[in-house]
Write a structure and sequence with these properties.
The chain is mainly α and 175 residues long. It contains 8 helices and no strands.
């Protein structure tokens, strides 16, 4: 399944998502690797098997094995970090001064350019709603790639997440 096949599965009541998904899949403001990795990391973070399969099928030939693993790693590590740092941010106090004591070595050596990995972490953090992580990764991405890249990553995150939720609801209503 590809993104075009995924678009065909989006119900008519969500046709704006279909149009946005198609437009973003053809975005040229990011490099092909940045675009593909952002889509893959977001699909994994959106937790919908159908969306993940379609997105990975769409971009598997764009990403090297190492870049695909890095996008998967961004989704995995931010799944952990977003929960932990969201907790720290919500509770405040001494927790922000305490070491996390969570292994996250992939951030230091992701296997792709650091800015690409940061872009993917930013998009996943937007999906997972971690203010602290979004702020941290946004600063790095904006300084390296500009505000347009930040906005594109946020748009991809928003649309992929909405498509995943819509398809999940459609499947529930069918069954």
């Amino acid at each position: 399944m590809s993104i075009d096949a995924l678009k065909d599965r989006i119900p008519d009541y969500a046709k704006d998502l279909r149009l946005n998904l198609g437009a973003l899949a053809n975005d040229v403001s990011l490099t092909p690797q940045q675009l593909a990795g952002t889509f893959v990391a977001c699909a994994i973070a959106a937790r919908n098997d159908e969306v993940t399969r379609a997105v990975v099928a769409q971009y598997k030939d764009v990403l090297s094995a190492q870049a695909l693993a890095a996008a998967e790693s961004a989704a995995a590590i931010m799944g952990m970090n977003n929960i932990y740092y969201r907790f720290v941010h919500m509770v405040g106090g001494e927790y922000g001064k305490m070491p996390a004591q969570l292994r996250m070595s992939v951030i230091g050596n992701p296997g792709v350019e650091k800015v690409d990995f940061e872009l993917w972490c930013l998009a996943v953090s937007a999906i997972n709603g971690c203010d602290l992580c979004v702020t941290s990764h946004e600063k790095i991405v904006r300084e390296a790639l500009g505000a347009g890249a930040v906005q594109t990553a946020a748009r991809i995150a928003a649309v992929v997440h909405a498509v995943a939720a819509t398809l999940q609801a459609a499947a529930a209503l069918e069954g």
